[in-house]
Amino acid sequence: MKLSTLTALVTAIEEGSLRAAARRVGVSQPALTKMVRELEVELSASLLARTSKGVVPTAQGKVLYEHAIRVGRELGAATAEIRQLGGTMVGELKIGAVPVAVMLLIPETLRTFGKAFPDIRLRVSEELYIAQLQKLRSGEVDIALGGIPDGLPTGEFVIEKLMATSMVVVVRKGSPRAKAQSLSELAGAKWVYTGASSDSGYAKLLFERNGLPPPPVGAVVNSTLALLSIIATGDFVGLMPQQIAVQALATQFLTVVPIAEGGLPLSVGAMIRSDSVVSPAIRHFIAHLHRAAHQISGVS
Fold it and tell me: Do residues 70 and 143 share a domain?
């Protein structure tokens, strides 16, 4: 099985057209069709089905496509790692980060790492916890950043603890709810949940740890911007890392509610797959994460 024939199949599936795929690969359409046919003969299976709009993968084609994508990704990573070991710091790092990590660690890390290694391309995507783990398992991201969850499968991931924080209760500036002294006083308020659904989120966890039922769901968000905007402009209650909540920018719009129960303790860390090769770029990026965490902890 040749890499060129796998590339032909991947491109045909992504383009949905043999003609468009041939243009993208830089060969004639008959040549690309022949490469796909070579794969089908080798595997004794049909990989593409023709439709009135072009081509779509068969069930067998979908399986090979997924594996071919992984092969391409691994070869690209291997090439970059070999060059990095030779002292040439080039390549790409794909980072998946939950909103907490985006707010706390990403800005300073990108600044210092980008300055030190300008030829390493960084792709940062804000991910929910479930999506983050799925992408880490599949190799779509190299590093996952966020709160270290309970119940991770033993041995599946290597976890690098970066810092401890506390998720504190916040409301919009001027809200009468800022006078609350206990969590029970906020039980009837509408809370902003961060997660895929109302079954997840730090608000639910905070209430359960204090022996209270989860509060009403006012909104469910999966981005930092949405979290900040909704709390700052509406009659909602939410949770935010203490280091962010006390910054000058946040205090213009938000107020920390000093409830007796305190905040929700949270350890923030980096995760990589235990079976992945730790490239020099990954090691350097984690070192810069530690530097950013130390700086944040020093000013908190």
Answer: no
Please list the residues that pair with 120 across neighbouring strands: 91
CB atoms within 10 A of CB 90: 14
DSSP class of 152:
P
| H or E stretch at 112 | helix 106-116
Model-wide pTM > 0.85? no
Report the 10 Å Cβ neighbour count for 124: 18
**Which residues fall within 8 angstroms of residue 218, CB to CB, at 6 or more apart?**
189, 190, 191, 192, 230, 234, 236, 237
The amino acid present at 101, given as its one-letter code, is A
| 232 and 145 within one domain | yes
Q: What does the pLDDT look like over 109-133, one tens digit per residue?
A: 999 998 988 888 899 988 766 677 8
Residue 120 and residue 27 share a domain: no
Find where tokens 């000013």 sit. Answer: 299
Structural tokens at position 203: 């608000």
Q: C-alpha distances in angstroms, 126 versus 92, 189, 201, 248?
A: 17, 27, 15, 24
The pLDDT tens digits for 166-198 are 899 999 999 999 999 999 999 999 999 876 556
Domain residue limits at 246: 90-300
